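Reader question, answered in our methods column.
A reader sent in the components of a multi-part assembly and asked whether the whole thing could be modeled at once rather than chain by chain. We filled in our standard form and ran it. Here is what they sent:
COMPLEX SIZE: two components
ENTRIES:
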Amino acid sequence: MANKSNVSLSVIRRLPRYYRFLGELIKSGCLRISSKELSQRMGLGASQIRQDLNCFGGFGQQGYGYNVESLHSEIKDILGLNKKLDTIFIGCGNLGKAILTSMDFDTLGYNIIGIFEKDKNIIGQSFLGLKVLSDEVLDDFCKKNRPAVAIICIPKKAAEDMSDELIGYGIKGFLNFSHYDLALNNDNIVVENIHISDSLLTLHYRVNEAIKES
Amino acid sequence: MANKSNVSLSVIRRLPRYYRFLGELIKSGCLRISSKELSQRMGLGASQIRQDLNCFGGFGQQGYGYNVESLHSEIKDILGLNKKLDTIFIGCGNLGKAILTSMDFDTLGYNIIGIFEKDKNIIGQSFLGLKVLSDEVLDDFCKKNRPAVAIICIPKKAAEDMSDELIGYGIKGFLNFSHYDLALNNDNIVVENIHISDSLLTLHYRVNEAIKES
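And here is the structure of the entire assembly that came back:
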């Protein structure tokens, strides 16, 4: 296996797509696939696919292609999905609830151990077999249970107020739906941002350009 | 104003962030800001900020910095937010409902004109002052109303089955929450994907690397 630590973020961001596609190929009974075929199905260049997968050691064989199951299992291993990450979920508004109920956290390698909310009407409700807790007990909970990841579905101001505390508990990774830039001034955490409104703004620009060109 | 059509996607993707930050500065009463200050607040390099904004004509004045309101208004103009895009919303499951009820579509430049769902229990419910319609009337609706954008909150298979039809109606832009790659084989549409599970997988990898290094 090659050294994984120097792999660029753009390669890493493509790994989930490979993982998904290969999972679907397995379901459809496909045993092996050439990089050319994979390229056509995924809309990526065949040489890019070979380069990407070479970053992690290169699993293809010339004239044979890739063994779908073993490549899928290798990528699962690279993503580290066999080891679940203990995770807290903060914010059970509409979006938070939707994410809690629609994601298959277990398959994605996450173990949700606590759900927190400040709205008294929501505290005590159950999701994923867990009762929603008051954010007032977050401190005790984190000191005791040491989560590795936090999923943040709260407004910007609340995220800003809470961020130092969360990082202080030793939380290493954030899936951030808020508009607060958690990574700012914090080099030792990793953050994946999902900014739906930013995507809508980018789309707006691109649609206007597409309409002008057509 | 510079030619906007050759601006790279990575610059365009940063515009919503500038727009958000400048909006907050206006709210806090800030009238002008240097690229250095903007850089510190946003966690971007000052020279990158100057370069980005130069792509669109360059609004800063040496020794003065940027006039916050006029820069905000210029970016609003560049993003095209003054002209609302007629938009249909497809899929009112948990995630769809959460997005319908949590986004400020009007401010983001979108005019939601129709909401569609196939589940009979959801058809007839109201969101944003619109009754949810059956996806069986999508065809008639689109031929009559010619939406420019579709927001897709449906499973992969449903998105795949529907995509040719939607593109056939002349829909130019998609905000795609499904795992179907809409842009594949369709060069003349623009797609912004939000793949929450892919972000979770990428985060998993990055957290593991961060734990190893610490």
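What stands out: The mean pLDDT of chain A is 90. The first helix of chain A runs from residue 9 to 27.
Send us your own complexes using the same form.
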